[in-house]
Design a protein that fits this description.
The structure is a single chain. The chain is of the alpha/beta class. It has 13 helices and 12 strands. The protein has 2 domains: 110 residues, NAD(P)-binding Rossmann-like Domain (Rossmann fold, 3-Layer(aba) Sandwich); 180 residues, Rossmann fold. 36% of the residues lie in helices and 15% in strands. Helix 4 links the parallel strand 4 and strand 5. Helix 5 crosses helix 8.
Length: 313
Amino acid sequence: MPPPPPLVLLAKPLFPNFAAALEGRYRLVLAGDADAATAAEARVLLVPGLVAVTAELVDRLPALELVAATSVGLDHVDLRACRRRGLAVTNAGAAFSVDSADYAVGLVVAVLRRVAAAEAHLRRGGWATDGEYPLTTKVSGKRVGIVGLGSIGSLVARRLAAMGCRVAYHSRAPKPSCSCPYAFFPTARALALASDVLVLSCALTEETRRVVGREVLEALGQGGVLVNVGRGGLVDEPELVRCLREGVIGGAGLDVFEDEPDVPAELLAMDNVVLSPHRAVLTPESMRGLLDVVAGNLDAFFAGRPLLSPVSL
């Protein structure tokens, strides 16, 4: 008789297509439904979406060895608790990078060219009654600063450089000059001073929380544009709203917010802001790529092979 499939504990229910793909290979049990014996046996915790993985949850699983997240950012996972326990942690790797980079570029274009506002002008009959929509500014030639030149940020840089933008970046340390043709700035404020557009694509950590506040926004200036496809917590959101209202910066493209799904009401009325409900990474193609990464990490773990997307703790 063949052995039972390996147990994988779920922090919350899986996406239906993920469950269908994994159920034959693994015994999937919701953490909330697991009895004491099952919790004591679990070596893997699979974390769909952004459900919180707390120290208390980790400590309730004495046999736990791997926390497998389906996101790139891990601000919802208590990494200190994982480090203390000596756990391995994996994330989505590069599964979302291309789609997130494409979306960031789309937001840059949409804000600079006022695509959403021009469409609203047309839909309400303004073209016929009020005439032409005002001129907007070109994308090519803009100075673009990228905060976080990782797998997403580097793809944003390549795309915007190909469109004729001048790209620079800020990260924890400069990239090797042989592999990175872009100028490095030691702080987000210094980068903002030298940029027309500031794109946030870094992870949310204790060091990067609210990395963009009023000082950085003032450095970006009246014609400047902020684009965020990282995490809402990278930005001091109340200050961003004030700076947009006061004309401190020229516009923003936001896919993420500090207290999702709540979005500041004032942003909804601003025609120099493009908003979306945290969708940058999500396409059918990226979800198939994510399933490959998740399944690959589980297969590798139970076979004793190197993990596909380990996170350094």
